[in-house]
Each structure stands twice: as C-alpha cells, then as structure tokens.
Specification:
Gyrase A, domain 2, alpha+beta, 4 domains, four-stranded antiparallel beta sheet, 611 residues
Length: 611
C-alpha cells in the first residue's frame, strides 16, 4: 500500500466513485476531474479533509487542490479508480462554450506543462554555463545540454497530437503519426517552393508550432469516425489510419498549416502590441490579477499564447509579469510566519512559504492569505508594483521555465545581460513591498492568545463585548455554504450569511462608513464604527449587468446608520435576465474576531461578531 493509497481511495469514493469519473489529470497542485455528474460528489469531504487544501469548481472541472505532492496522489487515484489518466474525457453537456473551450485548452497543454518548464530551465542553465565559459556551447556537453533543452519545444506538435487525440478519443497513434509527419527531416525547413497537388507551398517548417497540429487533429477526428463506420471490420484496423493519415497530412501542409501559422503569428503580434502600448500598465494588471485567476483555476489557459511564442523563439513579457505574483504571496506568508506566536500555525506556514519559493502558491493562498483577505490583496498590490517595473524595463522571459526561483533561468539572455538583473529587481520589489504591507496589516490571530488572555476575553464576552449586523434585506436568510458560488460558499472570503430577497430596498446592516461602491454597483462595502468590514454582494455574477437594475442612494465616504437606505434594486428584472439574486453578506476581516456567528432564524440580526 502506497503512502497516499488511503487518501486516493477516499477521493475516488467522494467524487462519486470510479464510475462517475470521465477523466482525471493534474496540474502543478490540483487533481482536475471531469465528472459525469458533479451532484454525486461529496463537496464537504474535500472542504474539511486535513490532507486536502480546498475544493474549487471551475471551467467544467471538479478541482481538488492537493499541493506539491499531487503527482503521487494522482498516481494512486488512477490505480484505485482503474483508469489510465489519459483516456477520452468527454465533456459535460451543460457546459457553456467558454467552459468547454477552457476544458479543451487545459486538456491539450496542462499534462506536459511541467516538462516544458523543465526544458526551459535546462536551456537557461546551458546559457549560464556557456556565458561563464565553464561549458562552451560548441563543446560536446554544451551541444548535449542544448539538445535536451530544445527537444521538447522542437517536438511540441507531437505532445499536442498525443494530448488532443486523447481528449477527443482519436486513436493516439494515428495522432502521433500525423504530428511526427510534420517534423520529418526530409521535409522540415525546405526553403524553396514545393508543389503539392499543384499548389506552391513555402516554409514547410512546423517544428515548435501548436495550431497546425491542433487543426490537423480536428480534421482527422471526424475522418477516423467516418472510416470506422463505413469500412468492414476485417480491414478497418489498418485502412482507417491509412486513409486518415493520407488525407490529413497533405491538407495540413497545403492549407491548414500556413493558415494556422498566420493565425498564431497574428495572435502573438496583437498581444505584443498591447504590451508595447503600455508595458507598465500591462505588467501591473497582469501581476495583480494572476493569483485571483489561480483561485478560480482558469489561469493556465492564459499562458497558452506565451507557450506558443516561446516555443517559436519569441521572447515573452506576460510570463515575466505573472512571475511577480507568487513571490509576493510567498513574502506575505513569510512575514505572517515571523510575526505569529501560534506554534501550530507557524509549523503550517513554513512549508507554505517554502512552496512559494518554487512558485507553488496554493498552500499559501488557501491556507493563510485568502482567509485574511486584506493580506491577499496586499500581496496582489505588491505584485502589481513588481510587474510594472518588469514592464517598464521590458525584462523578458526567453525560454519557458517555471515560476518562483525556477523562473530565473528563463530570463537569462547572453545578448541582453541586463535582462536578468531587471527581472530580479522586479521580483524583489514585489517581495519587499509584500513584507512591508504584511508587517503593518497582520494582526495576531485571536485564537493564539494564552489562557489568561482567553479568560479575559470570556469575561468581556459575558459583559456584552460583541457586535451585530441587522438584516440589510427582507427575505430568507440561508447559510453561506448553501449557495452556488464557491468563492463565497467556501468561506475563504470571510464568514457571513446569504439572503434570498423578497423586497427591493437594501439598507445598512451597521453604523459606519461606506468605503466601497463597485463601479458596476453590484457590490458595496461598509466599515462599521467598531471596525467590521462588511461586503454586500447583490446577486451572483451580476457584475455582468454593468450597473443595470441598481439605484445607489449613497456615495463612498458617506456616514450611515443601521437601517439607512443604501440602494434600491430591481430584483425581478435581474431574475428575468437569468441571474441568481441570492445576496451574500460577509465580514471580510473575519480573522480579527474570536468568532463570527451566522444567525439564520433571528428576526432582527443576521450575524454576531465576538471580539
């Protein structure tokens, strides 16, 4: 029995059993399940298990966040479930187009992303050794290192052919044969015009490309299905791949390949023009939002254009921008670790920030920064400053590498020696600012006080040292974990309740100050006179309404009393547009209290805060 066999058995059981699994693969920290029916899965098991960081549902996937040891858990899960981990996964029929597209992007690129990163690091190390004169590029070892680093990128169409064939259910060996046919040495790189079926074709070089083989596999899939359907069983085993390859490969060379390469080049040129227009703003925005995208598990799809560009030898800025984000979250946890007196938390924080050094931030985010939302945002802001500097100095990434310290080899360029220096400075800016922000913002968790202080707290509690939130809306109060939005239901943004409204007036739940009104008017933040930071999010996904249906009666900075009218909302109109009007009310600085108690059956109060 393996180290993670018991955990794997529990995971398979609680996703609804092996018969409920269409497919499972893993990224750097998550098991990503495609389930036949997510309602059969036991969400509470994954949220409350000490060996699991958290559960996320995004992009049509049931994502179980494990941590650094996810490959070992994945291996045990596939054994327990009796699946290979690379079988056709299918797709949930109720997914929208965006979710399906994200699912396919992840299925194509994520399984070998760590290998791409490893190859990029080898290329970076080869550059270091060559520049230092220790291993000349023309030496035998230098040539071997270059080959090891370049091979994955050169044969990228083969990797794509395998993963995309697996996803669609195409014969994987047919897919591999098509991918390899694009790299045959007698054809690749022929500079002069070549006539195929009367068409003049130039530049037959598809090494390190992605889109030509994607389009090629898309073409071959229906062909294989067609031939399997019409051909006699006795001959289809060899005639189906024969006819599929004979038709697909020439079409790729003559039509699909040139078109796909033009699309790829145009896409990357468009992204580059955005960066060139304002690299400082692009760097700040990319670095700020990266960890937010990590939370929802949709971040990997955004690096696909960068993978395409780097594989073709085009330096990239986006990878450089987002590299500042893991360093910032890591630094937040380091300062928390230095300041906390809670021995248990200190022992848990240590591996979390060590993981952050290597670019793995989920343990830090879900374990420590998100529960204290101010510190999470502080880390995002610190990353934005680092990303802005990287943009201002155009500190490129030259080869695909990892995040964290593994990103450094990717920024090495013999032709641009100052690039690595600027890259390091940008990341140091993120680290230093995150340390400073956390030093001033982090307050010791109240649960770590000693017994004497706990006794005093109980005495204060008996004397009424607590604060309450009144009903801001008329309607049914429900527990937060019962709503469909996982970001709120999981409690990572703060504890509280949700209300299903029956009237349109939203009033203040506390005496305090209006601190935030979102531009789209769908959310409002109030800080009470006693320090409670209350966020009221009207409906779910209502940011898409761009303010329609919300009539705000106050402004940021206004002083309000409990019961004062904040806004009037057209809930009927919002429902008519297909939106869920369930309204979460959360205390974002939950960690500043001994307890935050949800009251679902009180006629006057919805939350009680214990100091």
């Amino acid at each position: 029995m393996g180290k993670y066999t018991n955990l794997a058995q529990d995971i398979v059981k609680n996703v609804g059993g092996k018969e409920n699994i269409n497919n499972v693969f893993h990224c750097i920290t998550r098991l990503r399940f495609n389930l036949k029916d997510e309602s059969k899965a036991n969400d509470e098991f994954f949220k409350n298990n000490d060996e699991i960081v958290t559960l996320m549902k995004s992009g049509g996937q049931y994502q179980v966040v494990i941590g650094n040891h996810v490959p070992e858990v994945f291996e045990e899960v596939t054994k327990v479930a009796g699946i290979s981990g690379d079988q056709p996964s299918g797709s949930s029929s109720n997914q929208n187009l965006g979710a399906k597209l994200l699912e396919y992007i992840q299925a194509i690129f994520m399984p070998y992303l760590s290998v791409l990163a490893a190859a990029g690091i080898i290329k970076g190390l080869a550059t270091i050794l060559s520049t230092a004169g220790w291993v000349p590029a023309e030496s035998g070892l230098g040539v071997l290192l270059a080959a090891m680093g370049d091979t994955v990128f050169y044969f990228l169409p083969v990797f794509v052919a395998y993963t995309f064939s697996t996803k669609l259910g195409l014969n994987k060996f047919t897919g591999l044969a098509i991918g390899l046919s694009l790299l045959h040495p007698t054809i690749t790189g022929i500079a002069e015009e070549t006539i195929i079926f009367g068409v003049n074709v130039q530049g037959l070089a598809y090494n390190s490309t992605v889109l030509p083989i994607i389009f090629g596999i898309l073409l071959s899939y229906p062909l294989e299905k067609f031939f399997n359907k019409i051909l006699p069983t006795v001959v289809k085993a060899f005639l189906t791949p024969l006819l599929t390859i004979l038709i697909t490969v020439p079409i790729i060379y003559v039509f699909v390949g040139p078109l796909a390469n033009n699309i790829s080049n145009s896409l990357y040129a468009g992204l580059s023009s955005i960066y060139e227009f304002s690299p400082i703003v692009a760097g700040a925005v990319s670095a700020f939002f990266w960890q937010i995208l990590v939370i929802f598990g949709v971040h990997q799809a955004l690096i696909v254009p960068s993978i395409i560009g780097l594989s073709q030898g085009t330096p990239d800025l986006f990878i450089s921008f987002i590299g500042a984000a893991p360093f910032a979250q890591m630094a937040v946890v380091i300062m928390m670790w230095l300041k906390t007196k809670n021995k248990k938390k200190k022992s848990l924080m240590l591996p979390a920030w060590i993981s952050g050094i290597f670019g793995i931030t989920e343990p830090a985010i879900y374990g420590f920064t998100l529960p204290n939302i101010k510190l999470f945002i502080a880390g995002c802001i610190a990353a934005a400053f680092g990303g802005a500097y990287i943009g201002a100095t155009k500190a490129y990434t030259y080869q695909m590498a990892g995040l964290g310290i593994f990103s450094l080899p990717g920024a090495i360029s013999a032709e641009n020696p100052s690039n690595l220096t600027n890259f390091i400075i940008g990341n140091l800016i993120s680290i230093v600012l995150a340390l400073i922000f956390t030093f001033f913002l982090y307050k010791e968790d109240k649960t770590s006080i000693n017994e004497e202080e706990a006794s005093k707290a109980k005495e204060k509690l008996s004397n009424g040292n607590k604060e309450s939130l009144i009903h801001p809306l008329k309607g049914q109060v429900v527990e937060l974990d019962k709503i469909s939005d996982q970001a709120f239901a999981s409690g990572v943004l703060g504890k509280g309740v949700a209300i299903i409204p029956s009237a349109n007036d939203l009033v203040s739940p506390v005496d305090g100050t209006v601190t935030t009104i979102f531009p789209t008017k769908h959310a409002i933040g109030i800080t009470s006179n006693d320090g409670a930071e209350v966020l009221i999010h009207i409906g779910l996904n209502t940011v898409e309404l761009a303010g329609e249906g919300f009539d705000v009666k106050v402004q940021e900075g206004d002083k309000v009393k409990a019961g004062d009218l904040l806004m009037t909302i057209d809930f009927a109109g919002i429902q008519a547009k297909g939106y869920d009007i369930t309204t979460p009310i959360i205390v974002t600085n939950t960690d500043d209290y001994l307890d935050v108690i949800a009251l679902t059956d009180s006629p006057e109060k919805i939350v009680e805060l214990i100091h």
